[in-house]
Amino acid sequence: RDASSVLTDPELAESVQVGLERVERLLHTVLQSDFEFVTEASLHLVEAGGKRIRPLFTLLAAHFGDAEHEDVVTAAVVVELIHLATLYHDDVMDEATMRRGAVSANARWDNAIAILTGDFLFAHASKLVAGLGTEAAEIIAVTFGELVTGQMRETVGPKPGQDPVEHYLKVIAEKTGSLIATAGRYGAMFSGADEKSIVALQRYGEVIGTAFQISDDIIDIASPAVESGKTPGTDLREGVKTLPMLYALEEEGPRGDRLRELLAAPITEDDLVTEALRLLRESEGMERARQTVYSYADQARDELAYLPSCPARSALEGLADYVVDRTK
Ligand code: FPP
Ligand code: MG
Ligand code: MG
């Protein structure tokens, strides 16, 4: 299932498709450089695909104001560029070799190239946001700080005695929720939506982003690479304890015991990764994590209450269902 399947209204679908095409064109034009290799490395992940959830959300949020405003597309591109930049860096930190069904930049070239490419994308996002004014620039700067803080918090891990689930939820609100919140805020802001709509869309974004990341973490355990486009078990290898794992670690009995043993440190051996993945898939932690996704998706839908009933609102409700069902 594709994210654009939420566009059930033909007129809305047409408008959003046109917007997404403009996003693609602008993404390509801003990454042109007189040094061709920089462009090639930058376009690597752009062209590997990706769901374009954030631009889609920005465009949908703009339907609560004047959706045709030119800055909406620019704002969507700023958000996608920041997202792409973090993916280049994330794959270095996670030592990931696959992304979006393609080889990751760090695996195709090396860490230095991947890091510099992320920086290049970030530079271009900054250049583009300058044209949107100081408020937009401040918003993205704050968001970027949150994102980095979330990543730092994940890398460092919970403090001794800290509730690991609480730590995890904080990490994902920062590393994923913050940018998706800004995607919605930008769409509403640049279409001239009223203040209450801006806040509602921003809050919806933060909560849906949290749901989105939990399903990403379920996918890392449950989905084969052909489905997700990423190598399963990356979180296990990095020693990152995601929500399904934290729940599985609470389980009593022999399966819980073996998982506590296996997950005590990052797993390097393929056989042990396979064993841990099998035990996790069978564990109650998966179902509990799915229930948590449902509850965040419901909460996200609740945030839409202030907004008028319209095709764009229905699409955002559909996006909440999509996040719950997605397998890639
Ligand atoms: C994906 O998580 C990672 C993020 C959403 C944020 C990563 C943030 C940084 C790397 C901050 C530094 C960035 C720059 C450009 C200075 P994941 O690893 O769980 O997702 P995955 O399954 O898609 O790999
Ligand atoms: Mg990763
Ligand atoms: Mg990561």
TrEMBL record:
<dbReference type="Pfam" id="PF00348">
    <property type="entry name" value="polyprenyl_synt"/>
</dbReference>
<dbReference type="InterPro" id="IPR000092">
    <property type="entry name" value="Polyprenyl_synt"/>
</dbReference>
<keyword id="KW-0460">Magnesium</keyword>
<dbReference type="InterPro" id="IPR008949">
    <property type="entry name" value="Isoprenoid_synthase_dom_sf"/>
</dbReference>
<dbReference type="InterPro" id="IPR033749">
    <property type="entry name" value="Polyprenyl_synt_CS"/>
</dbReference>
<dbReference type="GO" id="GO:0016740">
    <property type="term" value="F:transferase activity"/>
</dbReference>
<keyword id="KW-0808">Transferase</keyword>
<keyword id="KW-0479">Metal-binding</keyword>
<comment type="similarity">
    <text>Belongs to the FPP/GGPP synthase family.</text>
</comment>
<protein>
    <submittedName>
        <fullName>Polyprenyl synthetase family protein</fullName>
        <ecNumber>2.5.1.-</ecNumber>
    </submittedName>
</protein>
